[in-house]
Write a structure and sequence with these properties.
11-stranded mixed beta sheet, Pectate Lyase C-like, disordered N terminus, 10-stranded parallel beta sheet, 3 helices, mainly beta
């Protein structure tokens, strides 16, 4: 009977999944220097050993020790009272988010409302890769959408992705490539580590990573509109070696390869939330060629250490670890009035050398971000035609937090802190007033918050 109940409960949890979380640059003139300290983070699952809805155990929970029984059990709709639920027996450690085996279900009210959940055992050890529910197959809620991606323009009111489309789960490169093509509204859940590939993302898509999902190779959002990508690891081809990229040309160097993510060709209303983007051969997430209305939130950018000792654009031992390019060249007519991007609660971390971001043309708003990329050459740049507003952000132990180049509208700095950093910390020129509501967090606890919460959950 217990085995049959758990089978039914697990099936029900899968049916109730809720929907959730850029271009090859031709810019080669930026300065470089050696990259710095490495770091990593992992996220734990939620409540350990807890009984789930209908008295079933939480998926992915850790073993508890003598979980307390349910408190009385609520009356089942149309059925008998539950009898209080048997106490959890300290459910076994979940492997990769599998449900714990402990804790018998409450016996009351078939087909009725569930009894109240039993209390979790103490001293459990969390399973790997889940969200706050203790079930990594249930995606965590998205952040609130703030910034340019929430604004109306280019025929779209705001960014909704696949909306309320029924989620489909994919676990292979072939299935993922098929699912994200076209313009039909879709919600796509990704599990496992996909084989490396070059993938074109169509319009009206929500892509959500589950249980530590990893997409490898290069994602292209060329001309795409209304796309949400969240809670997923995106790893470029250039993990420690640019020559791993199928498009790498040794006569050129790392910039001949692909970005991990490319948003380009008038793509608009794009939102990246709680992602981890690393090891793009050319860049991590580049936004160019007239792209617009983009928000990047709670995302971590980093690189595996690598050098770039070959090719006519070689940067030598410092490596072509250039994270985020906005606008691929000066005076691109199609960029004028576009490239409007909001970056908030993001973390530029291990081994990023520069372009955090390097920008042109647009109105670019950075607030509540964190920079710890020791050994870098510079961080945030305002280039030709760009207006940057940087607020309540921490630049910790880095070089040249700000860089303002000829032709920039300006870089305005408000409420930022620069512990242990050297170089320019003063803006110049003017910026803009964002057309949307937002409330910057204080910097007092910001670093701890970002380091604990940026990236997939």
């Amino acid at each position: 009977m217990l085995q049959r109940f758990l089978t039914i409960a697990l099936g029900a949890s899968l049916l109730n999944l809720a929907p959730a979380c850029g271009s090859t640059s031709d810019d080669k003139g930026d300065s470089t220097s050696a990259a710095g300290a490495a770091g990593s983070r992992s996220d734990a699952l939620g409540a350990s050993g807890a009984l789930g809805a209908s008295g079933s155990p939480s998926a992915g929970g850790a073993p508890g020790t003598s979980g307390a029984p349910s408190a009385g059990g609520s009356t089942s709709a149309g059925g008998a009272h539950s009898t209080g639920g048997a106490p959890a027996t300290g459910g076994a450690l979940a492997t990769g988010g599998a449900p714990a085996t402990g804790g018998a279900p409450s016996t009351g009210g078939a087909s009725g409302s569930p009894g109240s959940a039993g209390k979790g055992g103490t001293s459990g050890v969390a399973g790997a890769g889940g969200g706050g529910t203790g079930d990594c197959m249930t995606p965590p809620a998205a952040s609130a959408l703030v910034g340019w991606a929430a604004q109306s323009g280019m025929g779209v009111t705001t960014t909704t992705g696949g909306g309320t489309a029924a989620p489909q789960i994919v676990s292979t490169l072939a299935a993922f490539t098929t699912a994200v093509s076209g313009t039909a509204a879709k919600v796509i859940y990704v599990t496992g580590k996909l084989a490396p590939g070059k993938i074109k993302i169509g319009s009206n898509k929500t892509i959500v990573g589950l249980c530590g999902a990893e997409i490898r190779g290069s994602l292209s959002l060329s001309g795409s509109a209304n796309v949400i990508i969240r809670n997923v690891n995106i790893v470029g081809y250039g993990v420690g070696n640019c020559a791993l990229d199928p498009d790498y040309d040794s006569a050129v160097g790392c910039s001949s390869g692909n970005d991990a993510v490319s948003v380009r060709d008038d793509a608009h209303h794009i939102w990246f939330d709680h992602c981890d983007v690393s090891d793009g051969t050319d860049g991590n997430l580049d936004i160019t060629q007239g792209a617009d209305f983009v928000t990047v939130s709670w995302t971590k950018f980093h690189y595996t250490a690598r050098t770039d000792n070959t090719g006519n654009d070689s940067t030598g031992a410092s490596g072509h670890r250039f994270s985020n390019l906005i606008g691929g060249a000066d005076n691109v007519a199609g960029d004028v009035g576009h490239l409007n991007i909001t970056w908030h609660h993001n973390w530029w971390a291990d081994n990023v050398n520069q372009r955090m971001p390097r920008s042109r043309a647009g109105k670019i708003h950075l607030f509540n971000n964190l920079f710890t990329a020791a050994g870098n050459s510079y961080c945030s740049n305002a280039g030709q035609g760009a207006a940057l507003l940087v607020e309540n952000t921490i630049y910790s132990g880095v070089k040249e937090p700000f860089q303002v180049t000829a032709g920039a509208v300006g870089l305005v700095s408000k409420g930022n802190t620069f512990p242990g950093s050297t170089g320019n910390t003063t803006g110049s020129g003017t910026a803009f007033t964002p057309p949307y509501a937002y409330t910057p967090d204080s910097t007092a606890t910001l670093q701890a918050s970002i380091q604990a919460n940026a990236g997939p959950r």
